[in-house]
Amino acid sequence: MLLRPLRVLLALVLAVFLAGCSSAGGGGTSTGTATPAPTRTVAAAAPTGTSGLPTVRVAELPPEARKTLALIAHGGPFPYARDGAVFSNFERILPRKERGYYHEYTVKTPGERDRGARRIVTGRGGETYYTDDHYETFREVVADEDR
C-alpha cells in the first residue's frame, strides 16, 4: 500500500527537522562549546482601555484630531457634511452596540484633498476612539492623566 512509503517519508522529514533543531543556534566552536543564543526583547503591549483596545492619550493625538475633539465638545461647526453621521461599526472592531450608538467625525489630514483616512468615533456613553487608517484599527482615546 501507499501508507508505508508515506510513513517512511514522514519519519525521514521528522528526523531531518529534529536534527536541524538540535544543531540550530549552536554556532559552536571546534571545542564543542556552544555560543549562547541572543536574548530576545519583547515590546510591551500597548495599554488597553475599557474597550480592550489599545489606548492613546489626547496629548499624543495629532493636532488636527485635538481640534476635532474640541469641535465635538462645542457641538461644531464641523467642516464636513458627514461629520456627526452614524458610524455603523461594520468592521466590528469597536464594542458591539445598537445602530446609532456611534457617530464619526473627520480629522483633517494635511495635504489631502478629500476627507482622508483619519476619524474620531464617539459613543453615546462618552467613549471616544481614533483611527488613522480608515477603520482598519482603532485606539481608545483616554484623558492625559489616565493610562
From TrEMBL:
Endpoints of the signal sequence: 1-24
UniProt KW keywords: Hydrolase, Nuclease, Signal
Keyword Phosphoprotein (UniProt): no
One family name in Pfam for this protein: Ribonuclease
Molecular-function GO terms, alphabetical: hydrolase activity; RNA binding; RNA endonuclease activity
Superkingdom classification of source: Bacteria
Entries under InterPro entries matching the protein: N1-like, Ribonuclease/ribotoxin
SUPFAM superfamilies reported for this sequence: Microbial ribonucleases
Name of the protein this chain belongs to: Guanine-specific ribonuclease N1 and T1
Organism placement in taxonomy: Bacteria, Bacillati, Actinomycetota, Actinomycetes, Kitasatosporales
